[in-house]
Records
---
Amino acid sequence: MRRAVRFRLNGERVECADFAPRRTLLDYLRETRRLLGTKEGCGEGDCGACTVAVGRLREGRLVYEPVNACIALLGQMDGADLVTVDALARDGALHPVQEAMVARHGSQCGFCTPGIVMSLFTLHEEAPRPVGRRMVEDALAGNLCRCTGYRPIVDAALEACAEPSHTAFAQERPARAAALAELDDGDDLFVGDEARFFAAPASLEALDALCLRHPDATLLAGATDVGLWITKALMDIEKIVWLGRVRELDVIEDDGEALTFGAMASHARAYAPLEAMHPDLGELMRRFGSVQVRASGTVGGNVANGSPIGDLPPALIALGAQLRLRREGETRDLPLEDFFIAYRKQDRREGEYVANLRVPRLGPDEAFRCFKVTKRFDEDISSVMGAFRFDLDGRRVAGARIAYGGMAGVPARARAAEAALIGASLDDPASWERALAALAQDFTPMSDHRASADYRALVARNLLFKALLEIAGGDASQTRLPTPLERPAI
Ligand SMILES: Cc1cc2nc3c(=O)[nH]c(=O)nc-3n(C[C@H](O)[C@H](O)[C@H](O)COP(=O)(O)OP(=O)(O)OC[C@H]3O[C@@H](n4cnc5c(N)ncnc54)[C@H](O)[C@@H]3O)c2cc1C
Ligand code: FES
Ligand code: FES
C-alpha cells in the first residue's frame, strides 16, 4: 500500500502525502506550487483557461492530452507527467506555438492565452500531420477567448503545426516515458485515514474490498461531474475512491459482435471505435464537451451519473447495450435502459459499481441514426438527444429501438412509438404517422432553461421523422446542413 500520490510536474518528480481528498489540481498548482501561469476562469470546465497537459503511458507510448485543471483532482495526477504553461519556454526560447501566437497577434488581454497555448501544445506534440483547420477548431472548442477573436489563433496553430514536432519535448519523450514507467509500481494507493481519504486501488479485487469497507465513499472516474460538485456545489467530499488505476476498467475490447467499453475508457479513447461503428456516433463524440472534457470524462461516468441529458445513454440504449455491474467479485448484467429508474435514481446497490458496457455492432439489416440538438454547436449539453435503430425486412420496419435524452427524468425508450412503427414501409411516409403521434404517449417533457416542453416534443417528433427520411433514402434524405467548413467559400 502506497501512502503518497506520485507524479512528475514540469520534469520534476513530486510526492504528495498530505492533502484534502477534494483538493483540485488548479488550487494545488496555484496555491501550493505558486505556478501562476495556469489561470482560473469559470471553474467548471467550460472556458479552458486552466488547461494543462497530462501525459500518460498508453500501451507503452507516452500520450499528452489537455485537461481542465479546475475540475481535475490532485490525486488523479498519480502516475502522470504533468506539463504546465510555466515550463514551455526553454532557456529563453519560446515553444513553437507560443512563437506563432506572438507572430500572429493571437493574444490581447492574455487571460485565455495560457490555456489556448496548452491546448495547442498537445495538438503540436500529438497530432498526425498534416494538421488541418477542422483539427485546429476541434482542438480549440474548449477554449474561450473574449477579445482576440479566433482567426489569428487558428492561423497561429496552423503555422505552428505545419511541420512535425522537433521540440525539446519531442526529443525528451523516451526519457519521460521511462521516468513514468518507474512510477508505475502497481501498488494500491491510500492517502489519509479511514474517515477522510483519497484512495486509488490498483485491481478489481482491491476496489471490491474498498467499496465494501466504504460504501459511502464517492467513486471518482474523470471528475468532469464530480469536480463541479466541489467547485460549484462546494461539497466537502471526505472519502474518494478513484478508479483510474484499475487497469481492467480501462479497456476497450472487440469480439467481432460487440464492443465492450470498460467503465474507465475515456471519451477520447471511445471516439474512434464508436465512429467506426457508425458515423453519427463519431459526430456525437466530436461534439461531446471539448477535447479537455473527452480526455478526462469516461463512458462509465456518463452512464453512472444517471443524467437525463447525458449523450451516450440514448445512443447506447438504441444500440441494445448491456451494462455490467460488479460487487464483491460478483457481476450482474442488465439492459442499459433498466439501469435508469427515476430522476437521478439508478439500479445500483450499495458497494456496486459500473464495470463495463457491451455494445452490439449493427447487423446488415439494421439502420442507425442519432442526433444531438443543442443551442451551440460545440461544448454544449443536449436539449434533446434522439437515437434510432431500425431492423429492416427489405423496405419494412420489422423492429425498432428508439431512445431519447432530455424528454423525461431519465434517458428512456419510446416504447409506444417503437410498437407503432412495426410494419411501417420506408416508401410510405403516411405509415410513419402513428409512430410520430405515439411519441406524445411516451413522453411528457418539461420546460427548463435549455428548452420548453413544446419545443422538446416537436424536436423529438422531427428527429424520428428525419431518421426515417434519411434511412428511406432518395432526394428527401438531404436533411443535413453542411458544417461551416464544408460550405463553399463565398
Ligand atoms: C464542460 C463540460 C462539458 C460537458 N459536456 C457534456 C456533453 O456534451 N455530453 C454529456 O453527456 N456530458 C457532458 N458533460 C458531463 C460529463 O462530462 C459526462 O457526464 C462524463 O461522461 C462524466 O464522466 P466522468 O468520468 O467525468 O465522471 P465523474 O465525474 O468522475 O463521475 C460522475 C458520477 O458517476 C459516478 N461514477 C463514475 N464512474 C463510476 C463507476 N464505474 N461506477 C459507479 N459510479 C461511477 C460518480 O460517483 C459520479 O456520481 C460535460 C461536463 C463538463 C464539465
Ligand atoms: S477555469 Fe474554466 S475550464 Fe477551468
Ligand atoms: S485574449 Fe482576452 S480573452 Fe482571449
---
Amino acid sequence: MDNQSNVIENIKTYYGKTLQNKNDLKTSACCTDQKIPDHLKGLMGNIHDDIVSKFYGCGSPIPPLLTGATVLDLGCGTGLDCYLASQLVGENGRVIGVDMTKEQISIAQNYEEYQKVKFGYKKKNTEFHLGYIEDLDSIGVADDSVDVVISNCVINLTSDKRKVFSEIFRVLKPGGELYFSDVFCDRRIPKELMDDPLLLGECLSGAMYIEDFRRMLKDLNINDYRVVTESPFEVNDADIRNKLGMVKFNSMTLRTFKCDFEDICENYGHVAYYQGGIHEYPNNFILDDHHQFEKGFPIPVCGNTSKMIGESRFREHFLLVGDFSSHYGEFSCDLISNGKYDNPSSGSCC
Ligand SMILES: C[S@@+](CC[C@H](N)C(=O)[O-])C[C@H]1O[C@@H](n2cnc3c(N)ncnc32)[C@H](O)[C@@H]1O
C-alpha cells in the first residue's frame, strides 16, 4: 500500500471503527467549543441523536441565505450539517453529502426518510454518496453546478489538498461560495506526522499552515478569502503535544467565492448599503471579521468585497454604488476608521 492509501485507510478506521461517538475523541481539535449560532439551535433539535452523537465538526459552516440553493458538504460524516442545510434550503433546494467512510455515511443515509418526515417534506432534498472529495466527478457533481460548498473539519485530513480545492472551484457556479470550518496552524507540520493515525485522526497533523492555504488558493486563481471566525485551541495531552512541538492551532471558519479577485484590496470607489431581508441578519450583515454592514448605512468597500456581495447570491440584498471604471489606488482602512464613514460596525478588509 502506498503512503497516501495508508493515510486514507487510517482515517477510515479512525472514523469508522475507533470512534463510537464524540466522547471518544482524545483532543478538542475536532470538537472545539464553538458556539452554535442562534438561528441553528432550533433546527438542531429536529435531528436524530444518532446523527448528533457522531458529529465531529470544529465549527458551524452554515452560511445564511440558502433557500433554494444546492449545497455540497465535503466529508459530511453522519450528516449533521447536511440536515441543518436541508432545513434551510427548503424542499426545492438540494443537499449533497459525500464521505469516504462507509460506517459514517450509512448513518446519514439510514435517516433520510426519518428526517424528511421530521422536516415535513413530501420529497427528500438530500442525497448521500460514498466517495472521495478529491474526485467529485465520480459521484456525478458537474462543473458550475453548486451554489455553496461547505465542509466541517475534513480538508485537514486529506493528503492531496490541492486536488480538493481544485474540485471545489470546478463544481461551484460563478459567484458561488465556499464556506468551511477547519483546523489551521502557524507553521508547516512535518509530513511524516500524517502517518500517525491518532495525530491525523484528531485533525492535528494534517492541519494546513494558513499561508500555504493562501498560496494554494492563489495558485487556483482565487486571490482573496475572508476569516469569519477563529478560535485558537490548546492540545493538552502531553504525549500528543510533545510529538507536535510548538505548533499553534486555530479552528477557523473561512469563506471565499468563485470570483475574479485581485491579490490585494484595491479602491474603485464602491460603496455598499445592506438593505436587509436576510432572515439571519435582520439588522446587520456580517461578511467576515472586518465587515459588518449595518442596514441602510453606507460602507466603502474594495473591489474584491464589492464582488463578494455583488456577484454572489447576496446581491439582491445590497445596493452597490460604483463600478470598476476608475481606480483610486490601494484600498485604505483609513476610509473607514478616520473618515466620515466612521461607524461602530467596522467595514474594511484590512
Ligand atoms: C472530523 S470528521 C467530520 C465529519 C463531519 N463533517 C462532521 O462535522 O461531523 C471527518 C470526516 O471526513 C471524512 N473524510 C476524510 N477524508 C476524506 C476524503 N478524502 N474524502 C471523503 N471523506 C473524507 C471522514 O470519513 C470523516 O467522516
